[in-house]
Specification:
about 25% helix
Length: about 150
């Protein structure tokens, strides 16, 4: 049996709303330990991820809302983008960058994906979507809910 590092909570911080290509996105940061988020390092990863957003942003099955996570992990940075589509589906895109000078962002490879810390945000956002848009609410109602 492998020896895993014991789970420890990581700080989650609200970064505000962003608009890209007509999509309105909630932005979060996850950091481990007491390290502040290296926001400049994540700007490129966020913009790269946003290239995956479908157009047009709003259709009869797509409300034009979603969320992004800038996760400063253990040895790597992760830029996660998710948007609501096909009424009740959540496409996800993950980009990874090694935490080394000159480390470049790239698409996640085979087994790279969201992790247990990202899933805390995904879970909250799923519940917010069900309680708002899938309950007859609006995109603004969804965007007003955020993980504190």
């Amino acid at each position: 049996m492998p020896q895993f590092i014991p789970y420890a909570p990581r700080a989650i911080r609200w970064l505000g709303l962003a608009e890209r290509h007509g999509h309105r996105l909630k932005r979060y940061a996850i950091t481990r330990g007491d390290e502040p988020l290296r926001e400049r390092d994540f700007a490129e990863g966020f913009e790269l991820a946003c290239q995956a957003l479908p157009l047009p942003a709003v259709t009869s099955a797509r409300p034009g809302v979603g969320f992004a996570i800038s996760h400063q992990g253990n040895g790597a940075d992760y830029s996660v983008l998710a948007w609501w589509d096909n009424e009740n589906e959540l496409p996800l895109r993950v980009f990874v960058r090694p935490q080394e000078p000159g480390g470049a962002w790239r698409s996640a490879r085979e087994s790279e994906s969201v992790c247990v810390w990202d899933l805390e945000i995904v879970s909250f956002e799923r519940d917010a979507y069900v309680a708002t848009l899938l309950a007859g609410g609006t995109a603004d109602d969804y965007l007003a809910r955020r993980l504190a």
